[in-house]
Amino acid sequence: MPYLRRSRGIVWATPPGTCPEGEVEVVLAELKAELAKAVPYVLVIDLSHAAIPDAVQRSKLAAHIRDNDKEIRRWVRGIGLILTSSLVRGVVTAIFWVSPPPIPSKIFSTQSEAAEWAQSLIDGARAMP
């Protein structure tokens, strides 16, 4: 099952509600494929129903950010995270502390807030020469 969808310059990622073995790799492979398209976008990850990643999965997420730093800086205009759980906010903060995103990032509690922010980044990029 694909976890990513693209809509008008925004790539929406919705990881699974449970995190069985191998699912983090599927999500990361989809993110890597999106980077390979070489088209600018804003990434919004909806973690409102996602499982909390374990230590190995967190390590893989941090490694993805580190290993794809150049491509992320070039193609991703920003990353928005939709989080409703304070526990998940803590996990994401820890991941970003270990491997800070090389692009603007912001945490939201609703999809509409994240979409508004993402669209503002897209509009701002279009306005630049």
Descriptors:
single chain; 129 residues; alpha/beta; five-stranded mixed sheet; 5 helices; 5 strands; 50% helix
Description:
The protein has 129 residues and is an alpha/beta fold. It has a domain at 15-84. Helix content is 50%, strand content 19%. It has five helices and five strands. It has a five-stranded mixed β-sheet with strand order 1-2-3-4-5, sandwiched between helices. The longest helix is centred in the last third of the chain and has 17 residues, at 111-127. The chain is globular.
DSSP, total strands? 5
Number of discrete helical segments: 5
* Helix/strand order, N-terminal first: EEHEHHEHEH
- What order do the strands of the largest sheet run in, or round the barrel if closed? 1-2-3-4-5
Shape: globular
> Which percent band covers the strand fraction?
15-25%
Round the Cα radius of gyration to an integer and report it.
14 Å
Summarize the biggest pleated sheet: 5 strands, mixed
- What structural class is derived from the secondary structure elements? alpha/beta
Spatial separation of the terminal alpha carbons: 38 Å
pLDDT averaged over residues: 86
Low-confidence spans: none
Helix content: 40-55%
Question: Which SSEs are present, and which pair or pack?
Answer:
Blueprint: E1 4-7, E2 10-13, H1 23-36, E3 41-46, H2 55-67, H3 69-75, E4 76-82, H4 86-98, E5 105-108, H5 111-127
Helix pairs in contact: 1-2, 2-4
Summarize it.
With 129 residues, the chain is of the alpha/beta class.
